[in-house]
Design a protein that fits this description.
By secondary structure, the chain is α/β, with parallel strands linked by helices. Among the domains are: 9-69, Phosphorylase Kinase, domain 1; 155-348 and 578-597, 3-Layer(aba) Sandwich (Dimethylsulfoxide Reductase, domain 2); 610-733, Beta Barrel (Barwin-like endoglucanases). The protein is built from 26 helices and 26 strands. It has a seven-stranded mixed sheet, with helices on one face. Strands 21-25-22-24-23-26 form a six-stranded mixed barrel. It has a four-stranded parallel sheet with strand order 11-10-9-13. It is globular, with a radius of gyration of 25 Å. The relative contact order is 0.16. The structure holds ligand MGD (2 copies), iron/sulfur cluster and molybdenum atom. One ligand MGD is lined by residues 120-122, 126, 148, 151-152, 311, 315, 400-404, 407, 427-430, 432, 444, 481, 616, 624-626, 686-687, 706-707, 710, 724. This is Molybdopterin-dependent oxidoreductase.
Length: 748
């Protein structure tokens, strides 16, 4: 591969360009942003010269300017007076002083385990999240580390970790070459894709159909993606593992398996699948036996095929088993690691550092003894750890880019728990439902003042690609988010954090020195390029990566600076067995931890479905909880309604609103009757519930917190992941509530 590398010094000096990767979802679209002399965004367009996104943009990306300059966002540190509850702005030095003092007091009295960290979703999209959150986590020295991952994709990571030896070695459908795609619990026409980095996912699906391919969607709702599909099948929420086992069973029964990778455990999988014949899973899934058999035959017969499952199947009671069976199917049909099948990306910074095979449960949580996964405990037990007295009780919490009151199961309980903390710090751009409990809020700068590189998402890309964006607007005299996290890490350890101390440079220097030492390249420190120590770290990662200058290739930071639209690193390539980190260096088809959980699945095979179950959904113009303060995004259909089949409205005698009750809580919601959802299932989007928000637009479009209804006492067993789909609920008629959906006027 050959990259242009003209004038190094010249390109380094060109710090201000107008091209940037969109940080708002996993599609990593290239954007072309116009900024006026006062640093205001005047337009945002798709970058047509980006070789991966080719000019694609969605309504959220187009609103990046509004979001970036939201008048309600925080621009200075905020400190809350505990006695009066009043907020005031503060200087950075004062904020860090207070943090160092109060943190030392709590940890001094109760010990290190009394401090917890919660990391939200945007950390997957920021340089600060990728490079400095680990520094903060290490500084805390606590096992109470939580993140949105256990309300999201942890089942996929646990399944991949056990099968391939590394939880980041996750196969993605080779979208641009596959002939057949079986998609479960994903709606990329609204979400733009997840754990499958694919800008213009809709266009890629249409291209699949144009080249004669076929795609089938399994979803309890007829989504926009389902409407585009060649076939859509309704499925009872939470039952995907049964469907997939039925398909596995059929492949064995009909002699249709064609394993092409080195794998252990085939006999164990065959034995486990024996209990799940298509006839047995039909009642549980709502998918007829003959359809299960047909799906198996189609998958086996397709020249190439990929099975892909996402959030609808992860945030469910058998999330990990489902994710496992997805890749069991990819292996059994001969599609793992071959073009057109399910493949592993080769990310430019993504060298696999893991030397030991992945394990779960190296320690357990204090209260419920839930196993750790990837160094984290389930967010579904954070409230338990705060509310349950005893040694190791959580008394101090740091949240970074998260809103768990709206995003974690039993959100209302977590809301109560946060109010009990002795000290809380939030790094966040808003005063919101979670950060209102903080003592100190440290706001990141504008997005356009931050650099961008997708360390995580490019490991799941459907085409190998890299792009680096420098900040478009200078920081001025405020700290960037990387510096905030580095200073926070210093402050919580009682180290110098302000004044002349520069914890950011110190941290980077240490990481660079140890990494180069390990690689035997210590003497090449002087070669690292970059305007600051963060860029030097990125340069180092690129040089050491699979295309890197120090690994026989040509890639380094300069190449990316010279190619601001991004560079095409080619289609996905077979990576096995090299990418495997299992002890056996083979694919483990039947890890013990997963086979053990099959008993739980089997025990529930004959369960009768509850009368009504709740699932979630995503909306094109929302992003979890934090984009409801942009007027152009919350207009029209982007509202918090409960989708329900008209037959259920009649059957239950409902009117315009209903009282929805679960084991965890009760909500009153407006109904949106639609044939697009199967009978017996209702859907409420998450991320709403802003009635008391400090953000004016969001408050006027408040909606309700779906996670009042979800239940943190029920988690997926192997991964500890939250269960948002298939929650049993009852519905009764209700008059329209007064507060929901009408602007709330607040006395000031
Ligand atoms: N019922 C139900 N619940 C769900 C889900 C579901 O499908 N159904 N989905 C789950 C999933 S997949 C996820 S990922 C989680 C998300 O869970 P969270 O990550 O906890 O929630 P978000 O709403 O994404 O909150 C992001 C926060 O980051 C802040 N923020 C935005 N940009 C930045 C930045 O650059 N820096 C900093 N420091 N802060 C920033 C925002 O103001 C906001 O407070 O929700 C989960 N919850
Ligand atoms: N516009 C927009 N884009 C987003 C986000 C957003 O909030 N808005 N959030 C981002 C985040 S954090 C994530 S993780 C990704 C998620 O991206 P996706 O995984 O594509 O998420 P959804 O669009 O929620 O699609 C999940 C689908 O699962 C279905 N479903 C629910 N329960 C079940 C079940 O038991 N079985 C099956 N088979 N299907 C089920 C739902 O009806 C829904 O259509 O999206 C990201 N992109
Ligand atoms: S699809 Fe995602 S990455 Fe692309 S413009 Fe929209 S929000 Fe940004
Ligand atoms: Mo997510």
């Amino acid at each position: 591969m050959c990259f242009r590398s003209p004038d190094r010094a010249g390109a380094l000096a060109m710090a201000r360009n107008l091209l940037r990767t969109c940080p708002l979802c996993e599609a990593v679209c290239g954007l072309e942003i116009s900024i006026d002399p006062d640093d205001h965004v005047t337009s945002v367009r798709g970058d047509k010269a980006d070789p991966f996104s080719n000019g694609f943009i969605c309504p959220k990306g187009a609103s990046l300017g509004h979001l970036d300059e939201d008048p309600d966002r925080l621009t200075e540190p905020m400190i809350r007076d505990r006695a009066t509850g009043a907020w005031r702005t503060a200087g950075w030095a004062e904020a860090f002083e207070l943090i160092a003092e109060r943190f030392a007091a709590v940890v001094g009295e109760y010990g290190k385990q009394s401090a917890a960290l919660y990391l939200g979703n945007p950390n997957a999209h920021t340089v600060a999240g990728a490079l400095y959150v680990p520094v903060l986590a290490r500084a805390l020295g606590s096992r109470n580390i939580y993140s949105a991952s256990t309300a999201d994709q942890m089942p996929k990571q646990v399944a991949s970790g056990l099968m391939f030896g590394d939880p980041l070695t996750v196969p993605v459908p080779d979208l641009d070459r596959t002939d057949y795609l079986l998609m479960l619990g994903a709606n990329p026409l609204e979400s733009n894709g997840s754990l499958c980095t694919a800008p213009d996912f809709p266009g890629r699906l249409k291209a699949l159909q144009r080249r004669g391919g076929r795609f089938v969607v399994i979803d309890p709702r007829r989504t926009r993606t389902a409407k585009l599909a060649d076939e859509h099948l309704f499925i009872r929420p939470g039952s995907d593992a049964y469907l997939l086992f039925g398909i596995v069973h059929t492949l064995f029964a009909e002699g249709l398996t064609d394993v092409r990778v080195e794998a252990n455990g085939l006999d164990e999988v065959r034995a486990a699948a024996a209990d799940f014949p298509p006839e047995a899973v039909a009642a549980r899934t709502g998918i007829p036996a003959e359809t299960v058999v047909r799906l198996a035959r189609e998958l086996a017969a397709a020249p190439t095929a990929a099975v892909y499952a996402r959030i609808g199947t992860c945030t469910a009671e058998f999330g990990t088993l489902t994710q496992w069976l997805v890749d069991v199917l990819n292996v059994l049909t001969g599609n793992l690691d071959r073009p057109g099948g399910a493949m592993f990306a080769t990310a430019a910074t993504g060298g696999i550092a893991r030397s030991k095979p992945f394990r779960v449960g190296r320690w357990t949580s204090r209260v419920r003894e839930l196993p750790e996964a990837m160094g984290e405990l389930p967010v579904g037990t954070l409230a338990d750890e705060i509310l349950t007295p005893g040694e190791g009780q959580v008394r101090a919490l740091i949240t970074v880019a998260g809103n768990p009151v709206l995003s974690a199961p039993s959100g209302a309980r977590l809301d109560t728990a946060c109010a009990e903390l002795e000290f809380m710090i939030s790094v966040d751009r808003y005063l919101n439902e979670t950060t209102r409990h903080a003592d100190v809020i440290l706001p990141p700068p504008r997005t356009l003042q931050s650099p961008h590189y997708d360390f995580a998402l490019l490991q799941f890309a459907v085409h190998n690609y890299a792009r680096y964006s420098r900040p478009l607007i200078p920081l001025g005299d405020r700290p960037g988010e990387s510096e905030i996290l580095a200073r926070l890490a210093a402050a919580v350890q009682g180290q110098p954090h302000s004044g002349t101390a520069n914890p950011l440079a110190m941290v980077d220097e240490l990481i660079i020195a140890t990494t180069l030492q390990k690689a035997g390249l210590a003497q090449r420190r002087g070669e690292l390029l970059g305007a600051d120590s963060t860029e030097q770290r990125i340069d180092m990662m690129l040089r050491l990566g699979p295309y890197g200058e120090w690994a026989g290739g040509e890639l380094n930071l300069q190449v990316l600076l010279d190619n601001p639209h991004g560079i095409d690193l080619g289609p996905l390539r077979p990576r096995l067995p090299g990418a495997l980190r299992t002890e056996s260096r083979r694919v483990e088809l039947a890890p013990r931890e997963l086979l053990d959980d099959v008993a739980r699945l089997l025990a529930r095979l004959a369960d009768t479905a509850p009368d009504v179950v709740l699932i979630g959904r995503r909306q094109l113009r929302s992003n979890n909880s934090w984009m409801h303060n942009v007027a152009t995004l919350v207009s029209g259909s982007n509202t918090c309604t409960l989708q329900i089949n008209p037959a259920d409205v009649d059957r239950l005698g409902l009117g315009g609103h209903a009282v929805v009750k679960s084991a965890a809580g009760t909500l009153t919601v407006p109904l949106e009757p639609t044939e697009a959802i199967m009978p017996g299932v209702v859907s409420l989007p998450h991320g709403w519930g802003h009635a008391d928000s400090a953000q004016a637009v969001a408050r006027a479009h408040a909606g309700v917190n779906a996670n009042v209804l979800t239940d943190d006492s029920v988690l997926d067993v192997p991964s500890g992941n939250a269960v948002f789909n298939g929650v049993p609920v009852t519905l009764t008629p209700a008059p329209p509530p007064l507060r929901v959906f009408s602007p709330v006027v607040r006395a000031s």
